[in-house]
Structure formats: C-alpha cells, structure tokens
What we know:
Elements: E1 3-4, E2 35-45, E3 48-54, E4 59-64, E5 77-83, E6 89-93, H1 99-107, E7 111-118, E8 125-132, E9 151-156, E10 173-179, E11 182-192, E12 196-203, E13 207-215, E14 222-230, E15 236-241, E16 246-263, E17 286-300, E18 317-320, E19 325-328, E20 335-342, E21 345-352, E22 358-363, E23 367-371, E24 382-384
Parallel strand pairs: 2-9
Antiparallel strand pairs: 1-14, 2-3, 2-6, 4-5, 4-7, 7-8, 10-16, 11-16, 12-15, 12-22, 13-14, 13-17, 13-21, 16-17, 18-23, 19-22, 20-21, 23-24
Amino acid sequence: MRTKLKTLTLGTVAGLVAGVCFPAAASAAGDTDPLFYSGVIRVEADGAQLRAAAVPETPVSVEYWPDAKIGEAIEPQVLATTTTDGSGKYNLRLDPDDTKVQKALAKNGDWLNVVLRYGEGTSGDFTNIAQRWNGKTWGDPKRPDTAPGKQHVSTIENAPGTSRISAAARPKCYWYVTGKPKAYTKIAEYHSSAKTSGSWEYGQTADSNVEVGLKPSGKGWEINGTSQVATVKGASVRVDEGRGRKGYYATTRMQYQEVRLDTKPAGSSTSTTCGAPWFGLKVGTKMVTAKQWLGGTAKTGDVKKYTCAQAPQKYNDVNMLKGTTFVTTDAKASKLGGAAVVGGASLGATSGYSNNVKLTLTWHKKGKVCGGNAAPVDANTIYVD
C-alpha cells in the first residue's frame, strides 16, 4: 500500500542511533528457515484496511533489480513466488543459497533490497522492502520490523476481475535509469554543552534504512517502502567535537538512483497507460531509491536549544562526574525525518544497528546526560547539560 509523502522540516527532533550487527554465516542444509516475508492482501474499502475484503488465490512475488547504467532499462529478476490462501494470507520463502541472492547479499552487507509485487493485472500493486540474512533465518535480531513471520497488510484498489482500464493494446513498460545523484543524508543527531566534548562515528558495519520515493505521473511524491544501504567496505567516518553548546544533524553522502517508467525503446509509444507488467501505471512515473554509501561528513540544522531542561528528557537524566565518559553502542533506532531531498522527494531515514555508529561524550565539569524517550542507556536521543 502506498503512503502519501509528508514534507518534514530539518528541525524535526530525531535520534542518534547505534546498534549491533550479527555477522552472516553460510547456511547449512537442515539448519535454516527460508521464510522471507509474510502478509495478507486485502481490497481497499474506503481507505480502511481493517474493513477490506481478503484477496484469495492471488500471486505474490519478489523481484531483485540489478544495477543498470543511465539510459538503460532495468531487467528485474524474480527470486520467489507464492499465492495467497483462502483468507488472503501468504508466506513467501526465499532460498539464501540462490546464486543471484548470494551476489546481492555480498554487495550490501547481507541485506537484500527487493520489490514486493502482489495481485495481478489492473488489480496489482507493489512496494519496496529490505530483508537481512543473518546466517540461519531472514530478519535482523535487533529489528522486530524485519521478523519474517510478522504479518504485513497490503491493499489493492480493485478487486480481481474489476478493471480500471482495458489491457488490450497497452504497451509493455520498463523502468529506465535516468540519474544517479549524490546527496548528503542525515544519519545522526548530536548534542553537546560547554561542559562536554565528544565525537560521532559512522561506517564499517553500520547501515541506514531510507524511504523510497514514488511519483505517479501527474501526481505528487509518495513513500513506497524502504531500501537498506549497508557500509560494507570497512571504511568509517568520524567527527570530533570540542566543548561548547552544539546541536545538529550529522550527515554523510549517499548515492541514489532515479528511474522513470517508459516503453521500450524509450518514447516509442504515444500511450500514457502501461500494460504488462505494470498495468495501470502511467508512462512518466518516477521512483528514487538509496543505493550506496559514499562516505564524507557534513552538518545540517540547528537543534542546540534542546537540552536536559525540556520534557520528556528532563525526567530521564543521570549525573556525570568530571572526567567521565558516556558511549552509546546499542541498537536504538530513531527515524530522522527529511533525511535527504533527492529529485524533489523528501525521504526519511533510520540509521544505525551497528556498534560502529556510536556517540562518545566526555564531561570536563560535573553535569548531566539524559535520554529523549528513556534512560540514557536505552534512549534513541541523547541530550546533555
């Protein structure tokens, strides 16, 4: 199901996040569970999913989109398929030892970015999802949202057999790569005071989950799932900060990919509505996806007014003696709104899940550390006084 994209300001309070990655291991026969994704397909009823009717016996599949050069059409690779049962539910399994899957995992830190397609013809839809292979199962132990057994609800606008358009004479459409822009993307929020110095670090086994932007032809930008960008090259970036009141968003550079839906060759058809396999979508529909971490550091925004004096963090404070240091090294994910603006799409991001995304703060005078949503050791945003 698509969600309309909301524009978020740079002043949105988010969190500095870090966590623990679990190294992947080679799968062993009889010791793995290839359950990849579970869900239920419903027909949207006045925008209310819970009242929507289930869609039985409809196809569900995942596609991997290999890299393509600017101007080339992407050639999707179908990795797995299944069908919903009588209640519209499905369990999609994906073999991690498949050669195509192995290559994709190796390129992206054991994360697999795919397009989930459900329904068929004019009753179909799609969304972008990311899953991690942890050596024995799909899903990251630190990420409840990636649990393969979690039931995801997807909706289609039309019941099977009810068509908005005639499939006859509709041209086959393809996604063409139109650009590979680079953009600085928020990964963390940093706060310090006159009593503290500190640093933040991102890289090595860190990763970021970035929203995918979709712009149907003639309409505004929407969110269409997420993609995972892993840092698999062993590099890292670090910024050291001296004493002084500071508050900003830390950013690093990522490469994005812009694609546009068109006929083949591009511009060869005067039709505005696509046939198979993208029934109902119009020529000119655009999508932008985060693809790769490039490194670099920058700062944006001004959030230094937020300290331990405001609620709710003032209720989650602890004292810090002169000469003591506080370090965050656990998974405390927080979404950073408006993390990047690419091609007109404002995309949010959730960064971290690695012990190499960390915040270090040292007190030169007695002070306080406080957590935005919990005690500092469990919080996803750290403030100081």
